[in-house]
Write a structure and sequence with these properties.
Elements (H helix, E strand, L loop, with lengths): L7 H28 L5 H38 L2 H36 L4 H14 L3 H16 L4 H24 L4 H23 L7 H4 L3 H32 L4 H38 L3 H28 L1 H5 L6 H14 L3 H17 L2 H23 L6 H25 L9
């Protein structure tokens, strides 16, 4: 796609495959959650609570992929292929190092992490087993978001989608084989994800092979890797803080309400928001790619046009998600649990979160503009304080004010409103247009 191409067609050509890719990227959690329901409530609680461990893991990987994305987009827009090669090579080296480090942490700390989020008994033991098995695939798990970010930044959303289709189909087949046929239990869900991700990451690297001259000149760490990490760090810290906030919420507000609420969070967050958020994220990625390439080409006016084109589409998606969350909560949640208490708790989650879906869409659009321009610090400062506020606010609403689980979910809504309005204001102020990343 021409880096100067700004139209509704160009936007949708990026956004639709990006959204589909993001849905499939989250699908392994949905597939895992569906597959383990016959292992019991403890397995569902373990997997539901591990969602936020996986988000923290992904956040660490964003240190490289989120930093490389806007740099690659600008180099692509400027037509500087040599600089793009250097960024790609250094980013790959960084991803391998980060993946190796996180593998060690997961393998050694699985049981400790389960205790930190407040799980006990069988649920805690199952989470420890799941995380230790997942540790085997740290390096391909770290490289995967980088591969996607490279293609997105260059304006190619189709190849990541193909890779995610391959990953999802392989993961679904392996889940049943490993969990039940081979009797591996919850560890089978982790190994299914690891094997599938290793396969698709290898294919993605092979497809990138022709876009970079692999060797010491590109792979050896230079100041380029430092620049990648500097741009990616605020995004990584933002997502890590988001995950830690949910760990804290689990410990002080959600786990004390019982395993049914833990399991409901897993159903609502992974199965429902695991579909709605990726749609918003697809437009976020499309706008980020277009904004980054247009700024690299010296055309901030076309970056503004990309934003204008995206607004009605992403707001429309937010409204549709809100309607579905509220009115279709029961049949959707019923697919993922056979326990009546878990079902009722999941329905409550979905119907409360319906009231924030339009604001989640606004937040995604604002973050896409800021991240695409490389203004990742603005993303950090408008996200982290509001996310941290969820912990005391959730506890206050749940216990002293007697709202129970609904209080925790309303704390999430209220802070989402703040994040959305803050990021929108940062976009309107427009400082991102003149930001330099060198």
């Amino acid at each position: 796609m021409d880096s100067t191409s700004i139209s509704t067609r160009a936007l949708l050509a990026l956004a639709i495959p990006s959204a589909a890719s993001a849905i499939l990227n989250n699908a392994y959690r949905i597939v895992d959650l569906y597959a383990v329901q016959w292992l019991g409530v403890a397995a569902q609680a373990a997997l539901g609570s591990s969602t936020f461990i996986l988000i923290a893991l992904y956040a660490v990987f964003l240190l490289i992929s989120a930093g490389a994305g806007p740099l690659i987009a600008r180099a692509t827009g400027a037509g500087d292929l040599l600089k793009r090669e250097q960024i790609l090579g250094n980013a790959l080296t960084g991803a391998v190092a980060v993946g190796a480090l996180t593998s060690g942490i997961l393998y050694l700390g699985g049981d400790a992490i389960a205790a930190i989020v407040g799980l006990e008994g069988d649920a805690a033991a199952m989470m420890g087993v799941y995380l230790e098995a997942l540790a085997v695939g740290g390096i391909p798990l770290a490289i995967a978001p980088l591969v996607d970010a490279c293609f997105f930044a260059m304006g190619n959303a189709t190849l990541p989608l193909i890779l995610q289709v391959l990953f999802t189909l392989t993961n679904a087949a392996l889940n049943w084989l490993l969990i039940y046929y081979l009797g591996m239990g919850i560890s089978g869900a982790a190994f299914a994800s690891v094997i599938s991700r290793a396969l698709t990451t290898g294919v993605g690297l092979w497809l990138l092979w022709g876009k970079i001259r692999w060797g010491r000149a590109t792979l050896w760490p230079t100041e380029t890797l430092t620049r990648i990490a500097r741009v990616g760090l605020p995004i990584a810290l933002n997502v890590i803080a988001y995950a830690f906030v949910y760990w804290a919420l689990l410990a002080v507000a959600i786990s004390p309400l019982g395993p049914e609420v833990n399991a409901a969070l897993g159903v609502g967050f992974s199965a429902l928001e695991g579909v709605s958020w990726p749609i918003f994220h697809g437009f976020e990625l499309a706008v980020a790619s277009m904004v980054g390439r247009q700024l690299g080409a010296g055309r901030p006016d076309l970056a503004d046009r990309a934003i204008t084109l995206a607004i009605p589409w992403i707001l429309g998606a937010g409204f549709v998600a809100a309607v579905i969350f509220y009115f279709a909560a029961e049949p959707m949640c019923d697919l993922f649990t056979e326990d009546p208490a878990v079902l009722q708790a999941a329905i409550l989650y979905a119907q409360v979160l319906a009231f924030s879906q339009v604001f989640v869409a606004i937040e995604a659009l604002g973050e896409g503009v800021l991240a695409g321009a490389g203004d990742t610090r603005a993303v950090f400062w408008w996200s982290v304080p509001m996310n941290v506020l969820r912990v005391p606010l959730g506890w206050l609403l749940a216990f002293p004010l007697g709202m129970g689980a609904a209080g925790v979910w309303w704390a999430i809504n209220l802070t989402t409103y703040g994040k959305a309005l803050g990021k929108a204001s940062a976009v309107i102020r427009g400082r991102w247009r003149a930001l330099r990343l060198e």
